[in-house]
Amino acid sequence: MVLPARFLFGSATASYQIEGAVSEDGRKPSIWDTFSHTPGLVENGDTGDVADDHYHRLESDLDLMQELGLQAYRFSIAWPRVVPNGVGPINPKGLDFYSRLVDGLLERGIRPVATLYHWDLPQTLENDGGWLSRSTAQAMADYAAAAGESLGDRVDTWTTLNEPWCSAFLGYGSGAHAPGRHGREEPLRAAHHLNLAHGLSVQALRSVVKADASVSVSLNLHVFRPDGPTGADAVRRLDALGNEIFLGAMLEGHYPEALLETTADVTDWGFVEGDDLATIHQPLDVLGVNYYTTSRVRRWDGTGHRQNADGHHPAAGSPWPGAEDVEFLELPGPFTEMGWGIDPGGLHELLMSLHARFPELPTMITENGAAFPDRMIDGRVDDQDRIDYVRRHLLEVERAIDDGADVRGYLLWSLLDNFEWSYGYSKRFGMVHVDFTTQTRTPKSSARWYAEVIRRRSLD
Known about the structure:
Layout: E1 8-12, H1 15-18, H2 31-36, H3 58-67, E2 72-76, H4 79-82, H5 92-107, E3 111-117, H6 123-127, H7 135-151, E4 157-162, H8 164-174, H9 185-206, E5 214-219, E6 224-226, H10 231-252, H11 257-262, H12 276-280, E7 286-290, E8 295-299, E9 326-329, H13 345-357, E10 363-368, H14 384-402, E11 407-413, E12 432-434, E13 441-443, H15 445-456
Parallel strand pairs: 1-2, 1-11, 2-3, 3-4, 4-5, 5-7, 6-8, 7-10, 10-11
Antiparallel strand pairs: 8-9, 12-13
Helix pairs in contact: 7-9, 8-9, 9-10, 13-14
Protein name: Beta-glucosidase
Keywords: Carbohydrate metabolism, Cellulose degradation, Glycosidase, Hydrolase, Polysaccharide degradation
Region (Disordered): 302-322
């Protein structure tokens, strides 16, 4: 099958994971600077201080993207680089970096896909409550307007939030991600304020960007599968917490009853005010879908050891308030190096369920990829396992398109090996190998294979 002409092949990165230069040209700390410098929170004590040094290697990285034939590149803008204190004065040097990035992409025929928030909240805002505070939602809208005014004449697609579930439930529930808080009501409050920030930012963007720009959000939608007689109840509650808290609010303008029931002993949702849900429910041009794996779940019967193979870095709290008694069962494999089960069919299942529910809303795969134990041998990384992973998932995208889903593109995660959050530099997702000592880039076999897929526009 040859994919439709409008289907875009590309790749994706995130600011804190690749840029480095954390204290240069007016940038101030984000919550990930603070988190990564706190002993014991990131493997091997790794930080994003240098990462891939992309800030200083912009031109050569742009040339690499062109060499691989990328048609689209999804990057994120570092809020603390553009508005260092979270609110207040704009940093011209920060905006200049992203302006040069966007211009460099366009010069090379690559469409810019900009993400406003990929988890690096300015630390000054966290000091004032972070996503537990309503004011952070308005602060993001102001930041969105500043970014949109500067880059909105050139950026093809704008994404408000990347994986707000992780920001809320891993950041304020389990504590596995920055800012490292753990509670029960807190992640629900944070999720609502992230939703509100999304709605306000969509409004702000549409007032300043070019008329034909697309506005989107990227959600890491979970695919849960039931196990045994209690599996259906487990799926219902986890789906409410993992998916419906965003899909329902953003795309339908309400929090579903299953979510309110699941969290009845956690919160009364008193932090939802006035017209919040109407503000959150803004028309979108495309829905970003991040997909990596599936989960098999059931309720724990209280006996034996409760399995918790949910794929997230171990932490003090639970990211599932109101569903802490659910078991995430070990999957049969095969697995990526993250321990995530490889299940390409789950992507087709997810795309078709979204198409059935929101038939007028196109989707784009804004993240899909895998970490494997890559080995550099004689100057080459022959990552056939990654090729197989990506190929099988692209086949499911093709199948979904053939079955009627309007899928607009596939952005492979990730362009470069990078700082993988709580795992530091221990996990490599890139199709380009990075020697973190010398910063040498070496395209892996998967990069050469992907370039050929793009050239042919076919997996045949």
